[in-house]
Design goal:
By secondary structure, the chain is mainly beta. It is built from 1 helix and 14 strands, in the order H-E-E-E-E-E-E-E-E-E-E-E-E-E-E. Residues 1-5 and 14-40 have low confidence and may be disordered.
Length: 276
Amino acid sequence: MKYEMRSIKLFYILLLLATAAAFPYREAHAQLLSRGNLFGPGAPPPMIGIEIGFGQHTEQGNLACDCGSNFTGGTGTGFIGNLLFELPLDYDWAIGIKGGIDFKNFKTTTIVNDIVVVEPSNSSQYDTTSMFVNRIGTIKATYLSFAPYVQYQFFRMGPFVQAGVDIGFLISNNLTQDRSLINNYVKLADGTMINNLTFTNGTDEELIQSGTQTAVNTLRLGLLLSAGYNIAVSERSVFAPLLTYDFPLTATGNTAASNWKIGSLYFSGELKFRLD
């Protein structure tokens, strides 16, 4: 009987010791697991969010128009608006995808020696001569874009880098071409000097082309390289300023004479929310 009592007491003592040892271990282990963990211990929860930003665009290559103008070196500004989903694999690596609207445009000027018809104000006689004028080309293009990416986080919060591919589908575009006078005077072949020149609209600039450009590719591919900084706004939200360069991999113009591209530098802000 005494042996049975001692055995029971020993059993209870061992049970209490095992329970006391288990609680600290389970508590420490729970601190390593994050809510929303999908791939194993230490993976933060997925995030959804929005991205809004502005871009500086640069023309690369040559934009050739039917009238003979050849535009190069154009620049412009634009706007992006994206929805995003981000899935961390652990505290360092994450994969994600963005999708939204990308407005790209640029404006460029070239000098052309035009053949013009001049009507002197004091005569009804027309004369033909050549003179240098500015040709001003403006391209506006709107893309529906999708961008899968990979992200590396240097710390659990703070600086990160991204690399991805921008897949853009052209949904609208417009080419506008104007010409403007460099000088408001010209010397005719007989030596007559004509001053105070204007176009037929009474100004020193006129529209000569406007409409959809057909010599363009509807699919655009670009390499996205980004650097940003994750800032915790609350327990469930993160704000990230982001600097992104969009390097064009495919030409937008689809002819040998018009093989232009658009490279872009974006400054944007992401607001992301945890899905745990």
